[in-house]
Amino acid sequence: MPDDSSNRNGPGSVGGNHPLPARTVPVRPAAPEASAVRRMAAGDQGALAQLVSRYGGGLRSFCQRSLDNAADAEEVVQDVFFQAWREAGRYRPEAASVSTWLYGIAVSRCIDRRRRRAFRAFVGLGLREEELPSEAPDALRQTESRDALERTRAAIAALPARQRMALLLTASGDLDNAGAAAALGIGVGALEQLLVRARRTLRERLDPPVPRSGA
User: Fold this and answer.
1) Contact criterion met (CB below 8 Å) for 99 and 174
2) CA-closest candidate to residue 65, choices 139, 121, 143
3) Predicted local distance difference test score (pLDDT) of residue 120
4) What is the dihedral of CA 97, 103, 108, 114, to 10 degrees?
5) Does the predicted TM-score (pTM) go above 0.85?
6) SS (H, E, C) 78-129
7) What is the CA radius of gyration of the chain?
8) Residue 210's pLDDT is what?
9) 3-class SS at 200?
């Protein structure tokens, strides 16, 4: 009886004992932003300029709405990119996207700036002239009256810090809910609860119920 062992297909063989060719696993290219951070860590100033061009406008808008002051916002944005430049070698793309990383730095910087303001007010230094709220026009002023805008800004500023940050991060346009949650160091569910409470508070403050007239 002929031996058919040569026709048996064992593991790693094709029609006999010939090994299968090794499978090649395609390597996913790094996102352009993550690649820019790696180049930045190596001292590439062009990579820093790339990130400033991509995220500078959104960060500036977020910081200005958070701090209600254009000059402070500009300083904070510069601080964010300076810190990113210094710490680029510590960035880990598997831990957070570049946008989440940058907005996380911005959140911390804005909180620090507001705390310094509160301390100045506490010790009686008050606001310097250049620290007064910015009157620069924006898209919101084009559709609402100045009084309505000021009430909205005041209502947002009066929100608890984490609710305010959650609202502004999701409004920035650069982050989805998962990214905003990561920037705040919380879960998506916790972020959504902050948003629910923030929006409910704003509705109550900006659109109070109209009292019913007596019969």
Assistant:
1) yes
2) 139
3) 53
4) -170
5) no
6) HHHHHHHHHCHHHCCCCCCCHHHHHHHHHHHHHHHHHHHHHHHHHCCCCCCH
7) 27
8) 53
9) helix
CA–CA separation, 49 and 129 (whole Å): 32
Distances, alpha carbon 34 to alpha carbons 56, 82, 103, 155, in Å? 16, 17, 15, 37
Q: How far apart are CA 82 and CA 110, in angstroms?
A: 15
Cα 125 to Cα 45: distance, rounded to the nearest angstrom: 39
Token pair for residue 176?
């989805």
Which stretches in the chain have pLDDT values below 70?
A: 1-30, 117-149, 208-215
DSSP codes, 13-34: BSSSSPBPPPPPPPPPPPPHHH
Nearest Cα neighbor of 193 from 172, 174, 201, 154 is 201
